[in-house]
Amino acid sequence: MDELPTRFISSFVVEFISDFMHFCVEKYGFSTDEISIICVVATESTREIRHDGYLLKTYGAEGQAIPDEFRFPVSVQFVCRRLGMRRETTRRKLEDLANRGFLNKIKGGYALPAQTNAADYTQELRDFLVARISNLQTYIEKIPG
Question: Measured between alpha carbons, how far is 88 from 85 in angstroms, rounded to an integer?
């Protein structure tokens, strides 16, 4: 563990998170609570895709959006527990994000909507995240061995 560039990677990750938050605030006018909620819902509603080889191969690239039947509901209770927010505050923020089209309210909770055509508000986010991950790989390769 002493050989790993943990301080460098940690610094990069914190910068990455900070830049991501700034991007979301500037681009979409999200509050930090809204960013956190969208991240939790996006992660949890698409978790199965990351753990199923067929689904990952089929829907993991830009060619085809993840169909709604593979987007699982994330409950208000899960989001408020995960983020340490009050239940009513969480419910209100989830409702507002759904009303604004950033989340879908489905049976059992909320899910990230299928990101296609005009409804794809995450394209620029994905591009931003992929570019940052590429930067990290480049930086790590430059660290003297």
Answer: 9
**Nearest of 18, 6, 3 to residue 132 by alpha carbon:** 18
Cα–Cα distance, 85 to 29 (Å, whole number): 20
* Both tokens assigned to 126: 């994905």
Question: What is the 3 state secondary structure string of 50-85?
Answer: HHCHHHHHHHCCCCCCCCHHHCCCECHHHHHHHHCC
C-alpha–C-alpha distance, residues 38 and 82, integer Å: 12
* Per-residue model confidence as pLDDT tens for the chain (145 residues): 567 777 877 887 888 889 889 988 998 899 999 999 999 998 898 888 878 888 878 777 777 777 777 788 999 999 999 999 999 999 999 999 999 988 989 999 999 887 666 667 777 777 888 887 777 777 777 776 6
User: In this structure, are residues 41 and 110 in contact, taking their beta carbons and an 8 Å threshold?
Assistant: yes
User: Distance between CA atoms of 13 and 80, rounded to whole angstroms?
Assistant: 24
Kindly report the pTM of this predicted structure. 0.80
